[in-house]
Amino acid sequence: MDEYEKKIYGILKSEFEPKSLSVKDVSGGCGSMFAIVVESERFKGIPMIKQHRLVNETLKDEIAQWHGLQLKTKSV
Fold first, then answer.
1. Which among 27, 50, 3, 66 has a CA at the least distance from the CA of 75?
2. Residue-level pLDDT, tens digit, the chain, 76 residues
3. Reduced to 3 states, what is the DSSP secondary structure of residue 29?
4. Contact between 4 and 31 (Cβ < 8 Å)
5. Were 5 and a residue from 1, 45, 51, 76 both cysteine, which residue would form a disulfide, CB within 3.0 to 4.6 Å?
């Protein structure tokens, strides 16, 4: 992971205490599009759309600078 991927990873790890977490820059290294997978107990009983909103809210300052996000969430 590059430094920016590590930053995003750290933010998500701190907020969601995930069982598994993947953060990948899929923009060819320019940091404008990411593929993120978060599996967390925090999502238990929450519909997927609300899970995505939680992640989007957590990363809102970063997402404002991106062109796109491929997001997958799953409860444990």
1. 50
2. 899 999 999 999 999 999 999 999 999 888 999 999 999 999 999 999 999 999 999 999 999 999 999 999 999 9
3. coil
4. yes
5. 1
* Torsion angle of the four alpha carbons 44, 46, 52, 55, in this order, in degrees rounded to the nearest 10: -50
Is the separation of the CB atoms in 33 and 66 below 8 Å? yes
Number of residues written out for the chain: 76
Domains (ranges, CATH) in the chain?
3-75 (3.30.300.90)
Task: Write b or e for each residue in 46-73: b if 16 or more Cβ atoms lie within 10 A of its Cβ, otherwise e.
Answer: eeeeebbebbeebbeeebeeeeebebeb
